[in-house]
Amino acid sequence: MATAVINLDDLDLFVSGDPYAAWAWLRENEPVYWNASATGGYWALTRYADVNAVYLDPVTFSSRNGTVLGGSYRSATDTASQQMLICSDPPAHRQLRQHVHKAFGPRMMERAGHQVRTYLNDALDRLSADGGGDFAVDIAPRLPAGLLTAMFDIGLDDALHLLRLTRIMIGYRDEEYAGDSGESMTLAGAQVEIFDFLATLLDQRRRDPGEDLISILLAARTNGRELSESQILYNALNVAVGGDETTPFTASAIVETLIRHPDEERRLHADPSLLGTAVEELFRWTSTNAYVCRTTTRDVTVRGVRIPAGETLTLWNASANRDEEQFPRADRLDLGRTPNHHVAFGVANHRCIGMGAARMEINLLMQELLGRGLRFELSGPIERLRSNFMLGVKHLPVALATRR
Ligand code: HEM
């Protein structure tokens, strides 16, 4: 493959092409790659060691300008900068994270696990009775719905409403979710609606506090000072988007992966004690959050390539997780793989705060699939999200497998 044909902004590559072949070429030939684009271009790091090293140095590689290309929050003057976890640097980041972290405590996770199990079982009962369905629509969203009803202390209808809005935020370039008003208006419109929803919740919690995320953030104090309203709203938004738009895409990608690797699927069904390593291998394999961004705060040299201060770097988790230098036989799915230090959740100070919740949700799903002996086969074409940020399956038509 010639360099000129690799364009990581080309969404067709992610919908109908083979981004893994492109990343393999880049790892081998241009691990520090300048991806020119209409909006100015950015550097792409595709090797595990480089991605890991950048994650570990938040002083040189800042999150202040946001972590998604072309999306919102791509400027230090954006009001989210230094207020929302994902686009903050230390020390503000550390203080915010301590507060948000309290909402992921064991009691909350127990409540969330109970909700996830309830919604998941109902949905799987229906799918089984029907002999199949669209896994990405009928089953996968039940995982974040369960988590967010518990974390925000809201009902199922509100959780599904929030899910529809966060899906537009992440899928604003996909015609299934975008409106007629153009990409930036679609994105802005969804954000406004989410903020309205969260602001209403904030008013209610001020009057009648509970044990939910917003009440926890309202009670938070840093050196005696309360969090500002915008800090509370931005971090509630961060948790809502992080929770809604990662785990369901991962769940669908996992089911697709198992369908495409029947030997490994059989191996797991025959030996459920592999579940622990299997879940981590499936996170490595699916790497739903394809990349995150950082901005250089000074001139740096990576593998002999000089990168000036103020430039955007993309860290391709999905590529790093297939790097042969880190993972022997990286292109082979091995549900017993150990060790498995994948970077699907990032590394260091910004490492996914919802990682435990995501593990809980995916474990519950896998336990149900194994417990019920459920295996699927494809019953129609898979449709992928038009995004290079989220490697998402948005439609996964499946039938209960009969021949394996
Ligand atoms: C399979 C599921 C998930 C994947 C693959 C994933 C991936 C990631 C990654 C790669 C980051 C690091 C971002 C960076 O370094 O800039 C991150 C951060 C974050 N994630 Fe997740 N995530 C998942 C599930 C969740 C869930 C369930 C929640 C919330 C309920 C969540 C909320 C967040 C938040 C708030 C951050 C920002 C943390 C910080 O900046 O300190 N994520 N996630």
UniProtKB/TrEMBL annotation:
Keyword Ribosomal protein annotated: no
Keywords: Antibiotic biosynthesis, Heme, Iron, Metal-binding, Monooxygenase, NADP, Oxidoreductase
Pfam families, alphabetized: p450
InterPro entries, alphabetized: Cyt_P450, Cyt_P450_B, Cyt_P450_sf
GO biological process terms, semicolon-separated: antibiotic biosynthetic process; cholesterol catabolic process
Pathway given in the UniProt record: Antibiotic biosynthesis; mycinamicin biosynthesis
SUPFAM superfamilies with a match to the protein in the record: Cytochrome P450
MF terms in GO: cholest-4-en-3-one 26-monooxygenase activity; heme binding; iron ion binding; steroid hydroxylase activity
Gene3D superfamilies (alphabetical): Cytochrome P450 (1.10.630.10)
Family stated for the protein in its record: Belongs to the cytochrome P450 family.
Name listed for the protein in its UniProt record: Cytochrome P450
Native species: Micromonospora sediminicola
